[in-house]
Amino acid sequence: MHPVLREVVAELR
Amino acid sequence: MSGQAFRQFIVKVHGRCNLACTYCYLYAGPDRTWRSRPAAAAPEVLDRTATRIAEHARAHALTSLSLVLHGGEPLLAGAGTLARFTALVRDRVPAGCTVDAVVQTNATLLTARRLAVLADSGLRIGVSLDGGLAAHNARRVDHAGRPSWPAASRGALLLADRAPQAYAGVLTVVDVTLDPVETYESLLTLRPPALNLLLPHGNWSAPPPHWAGARHGEWLCAVFDRWWTAGRRETRIRLFEECVALLLGLPSATEALGLAPFDAVVVETDGSVEQVDSLKSAYDGAARTGLDVFRHAFDEALRHPAVAARQAGAAALADRCRACPLLRVCGGGHYAHRYRAGHGFRNPSVYCADLQRLIHHVAARLATDATPAVRDEVAS
């Protein structure tokens, strides 16, 4: 008809 | 057989816009359904919609739902109308079901008083802008062709100053003729807590503007590198963070990537129940279901074949996509971008090469920037 990686991954956990 | 419950309810409180953006797929695209609909949702439409949302929440024991006030330009309905409707929905859903309410605006009509009304009613406010400079927003003009930027930038900064707790962020349509890093850095001056970068709607029969090679993918990679190497997370960028999530094997919260079943439904100003507007970029009437809130429960929309197709994951994809090594991350891209006249939606995305470019780029950065020591530790 790596600070950014660290912060992003910590949140995604 | 009905699918997964709807959890995102997009309500067109107003069906017209005070702007006439030159690239708008809603008013300048192939779909004409808006012309025959009332400009604003009548009180009885909003009342019935609130009842139907509550009915659906009860039937599916939802513990949370997203209420999105959209348009057109929703503020044309008046901030008071938006606040009252939000309160009505919150009042009618079962106890224990939280309502995350957000309004998406072009920001030109934001005033201190309207901001206060929206923020006090617990509405988050998202802004649509194509960059943080006048030149980036040259295509966002009013019906007389005048630039919207002076009013829009004033509204966005007022939001950042007066109601930062209600500021949802900025949605930006990618324009590959603009400098990607300049565009990103200029958006940061608006202090958005989050950004999303949207690929312009297009498909195989009506390709997106400036579509060549993986030009859009390269543009996104340039922004990714600037954001990723900033030394701190300057803002959230949904497309990139969802790409990371998918690469790590997590479920995603975006239409642009991944295989998650789509659970959003739209109520138009006349009470019609439709699929999301992006489908209107494909052909006239593409979002239509033939249902409305006066005669039909949302469960009936779940049984609509086109809705079911968007909840079918990989089963709804082209054979090539199902065999692709990037399937789980890419997911075939945005549904609207797969359309080809005469062939429907069972095609790869018109942005297939761009998505491959971005996914490989993000994966490479992720692999490189998890330091060797940590990688060894994980491997052991």
Automatic annotation (TrEMBL), chain B:
Query: Which CDD domains does this one have?
Result: Radical_SAM (cd01335)
Q: Which organism is it from?
A: Streptomyces humidus
Q: Name one Pfam family in it.
A: Radical_SAM
Q: What is this protein called?
A: Radical SAM core domain-containing protein
Q: Which UniProt keywords apply?
A: Iron, Iron-sulfur, Metal-binding, S-adenosyl-L-methionine
NCBIfam families referenced in this protein's UniProt entry, alphabetically: SAM_SPASM_FxsB
InterPro entries of this UniProt entry?
Aldolase_TIM, rSAM, rSAM_sf, rSAM_SPASM_FxsB, Sulphatase_maturase_rSAM
A GO MF term: iron-sulfur cluster binding
Q: Where is the Radical SAM core domain?
A: 13-135
